[in-house]
Amino acid sequence: MRPSAVRLLNILVPVKRAVDFAVKIRVNPEQTGIDLNVKHSMNPFDEIAVEEAVRLRERLKDAVKSIKVVTIGPPKAVETLRTALAMGADSAIHVEIPEGTPSPEPLAVAKTLRELVMRQKEGVDLIIMGKQAIDDDAGQTGQMLAGLMDWAQATFASKVDVDPSTKAANVTREIDGGLEQLKCQLPMVITTDLRLNEPRYASLPNIMKAKKKPIEKFTPADLGVDLTPRLRTLKVTEPPKRVGGGKVANVDELLVKLKEAGITPKRA
């Protein structure tokens, strides 16, 4: 009896358009958020996720059938998708929201991704995504998506090995005490940490090829999801400016300064 054919892996990588990590953040005049009229780029953790998906295909060769990237964002977010396509992804999905619309919250993003996964005719075996976005630093979407899908999850991954024949993944993840190794069955969600890899720069030929790769478009209404925020930001202000410190000649003078500041030193 011939062994049954192993289904090739389909990888989905969610990416986010965020304020570039090198930009100095400023509060907008209305104090409703930060000034968004600055340079944007792909969220750095998502770049790592795209890179890892491409590296998996390079290691596993013909075992990876497709790498698809997806973003939820305004029309300009298509630039982020083109960057991911130039890095090596095959196709993309853009869930378009109007310009100026607040960035969707983690639960809304997870529900949107679930709907997209359910609509993929060839199925999704592995979702690789950044552990957090540098704008809201929530770090929740991957865990919520795994819960909604009832899939295995491995967060904060610093090393990923996938065995297509057994549909299993060995993931080394970073924890407070050091490293933890998990073995999970696909399908699963992996969120990437900084030390997983170093993303490549897209070459000019690949940038030109990316312009011809397909991008499928949806609206939240097409997917039947509601992206209305559950939280309301009352006010955003900049932190107080740091005040320079001072020097003291001895311990007695230090104690005096502490008492003047209302701090009572405790005896050892």
Task: State the main characteristics.
single chain; 268 residues; alpha/beta; 9-stranded mixed β-sheet; two-stranded antiparallel sheet; 7 helices; 11 strands; globular; ET-Flavoprotein_bsu_CS; mitochondrion; ETF_beta_N
Q: What does the model show?
A:
It is found in: Mitochondrion matrix. It holds the Pfam family ETF. This is Probable electron transfer flavoprotein subunit beta. One of its GO terms (molecular function) is electron transfer activity. This protein has 268 residues and is α/β, with parallel strands linked by helices. The protein has a single domain (9-243), classed as Rossmann fold, CATH 3.40.50.620. Helix content is 26%, strand content 26%. The chain has seven helices and eleven strands. β4 (64-73), α2 (78-87) and β5 form a beta-alpha-beta unit. The mean pLDDT is 90.
Number of helices: 7
Largest sheet: 9 strands, mixed
Can you tell me the CATH superfamily?
HUPs
Oligomer: single chain
- SS strand fraction: 25-35%
Cα-to-Cα separation, first versus last residue: 77 Å
Tell me the structural class.
Answer: alpha/beta
Count of individual beta strands: 11
Instruction: State the order of secondary-structure elements, H for helix, E for strand.
Output: EEEHEHEHEHEEEEHEHH
Please give the CATH architecture.
3-Layer(aba) Sandwich
Spans where pLDDT lies below 50 across 5 or more residues: none
CATH class: Alpha Beta
Strand order of the largest sheet: 9-8-7-10-6-1-4-5-11
Q: Kindly state the mean pLDDT as a whole number?
A: 90
Shape: globular
Counting structural domains, the number is 1
**What fold name goes in the CATH topology slot?**
Rossmann fold
Helix-residue proportion = 25-40%
Computed CA radius of gyration, to the nearest angstrom:
23 Å
Family: Belongs to the ETF beta-subunit/FixA family.
Protein name: Probable electron transfer flavoprotein subunit beta
Main location: mitochondrion
InterPro entries: ET-Flavoprotein_bsu_CS (IPR000049), ETF_a/b_N (IPR014730), ETF_b (IPR012255), ETF_beta_N (IPR033948), Rossmann-like_a/b/a_fold (IPR014729)
